[in-house]
Amino acid sequence: MPEVTITLDSHDEELAVFGSRDQFLRQVRDAFGVKVVARHGEVRVEGETRKIEMARQVFEELRGWHRRRRTASAGDVADLIESRARPEIDDKGGFEIREGNKIVRARTEGQSRYLAALRDHELVFCIGPAGTGKTYLAVAMAVAELRKGRIKKIVLVRPAVEAGEHLGFLPGDLEAKINPYLRPLLDALHDLMDYDQIRRYMGNDLIEIAPLAYMRGRTLNDAVIILDEGQNATVPQMKMFLTRMGQNARIVVTGDTSQVDLPPETISGLADAVERLRDVPGIGIAKLDRSDIVRHPLVQAIVNAYEETEPARRAVPEPSASPADSDLPPEIGPPASE
């Protein structure tokens, strides 16, 4: 019978994973129908391969919470079990996010891999062309996490880089000045929440919008931080942004490395980060392509036409891909699209 063994590092970690009087072990056992044996600092799980993997993910998440000094309750474990046992499989075999009465569902295989990466990793890079859902799915995940109380804040960030036009001086306060740059993120929010909710959440500092330059010196805990248009961040800016990650924080960086608006010869921080960090455990990299475009059918035709007739402008080439896509973590798989 298939099995997996998890070795725990200390007695405190055992208590965090087992729960009071082994309550968490029993919850996982009963939910997934697996055999759980705990002894001598180890947890052995036996059963069907898929159910073993779901149980392992719950236990590893509890270990992660312990290391971040977060205490789990029986309700937290029930939520973890639900998120694994209900990877909301749709007719395409993908995951979905439930937000109130709204269901955000993967519409392509690439999006399904992207949602799996968002679920399983605390830092995710998503690269893909316009219309593939990169930003929308990240915002949907963040809103769902906020509603469930798993985080305390959503931070939406974007580089203030103009796409070929110079807008000049913009009147108003900070929010008014950066609104044009953050409009795509706000559009995604408006599709998931009503206007009054968004204003209330912003007023209570549950949702924050900020230009990338304003992130320096901050440490963000209990938050989902989304950097949109990451290809327009420089290498120093990307390093600065990624190091804002605090306890119980998740970061998502989205962008299209074929649409870099930085000055010539300036290296894109997104392409550079994917190259540098692709082998770091715990980081998810999802690549979307033209087949994942889910906007109006003409968008895919337009993207195809431009890619066939114009060389992509890239500040740095994307990581070379072997036939087996060896540059991607095995849990994410081959290229996908926004």
Description:
39% of the residues lie in helices and 16% in strands. By secondary structure, the chain is of the alpha/beta class. The strands form 3 sheets. It has a 6-stranded parallel beta sheet with strand order 8-7-9-10-6-11, with helices on both faces. A 3-stranded antiparallel beta sheet has the order 1-3-2, with helices on one face. Helix 5 (109-120) runs parallel beside helix 6 (134-147). The longest helix has 19 residues, at 49-67. The radius of gyration is 21 Å and the shape is globular. Residues 87-94, 163-167 and 312-338 have low confidence and may be disordered.
User: Widest sheet: strand order?
Assistant: 8-7-9-10-6-11
Number of strands: 11
Radius of gyration: 21 Å
- Total helices: the number is 11
Helix-and-strand structural type: alpha/beta
Main beta-sheet annotation: 6 strands, parallel
Residue-averaged pLDDT: 79
Features:
single chain; 338 residues; alpha/beta; 6-stranded parallel beta sheet; 3-stranded antiparallel beta sheet; 11 helices; 11 strands; globular; disordered C terminus
Question: Secondary-structure blueprint of this entry?
Answer:
Layout: E1 3-7, H1 11-18, H2 23-32, E2 35-39, E3 42-46, H3 49-67, H4 74-85, E4 96-99, E5 102-105, H5 109-120, E6 123-127, H6 134-147, E7 153-158, H7 174-192, H8 195-203, E8 207-211, E9 223-227, H9 235-242, E10 250-255, H10 269-277, E11 283-287, H11 297-309
Parallel strand pairs: 6-10, 6-11, 7-8, 7-9, 9-10
Antiparallel strand pairs: 1-3, 2-3, 4-5
Helix pairs in contact: 1-3, 2-4, 3-4, 5-6, 6-7, 9-10
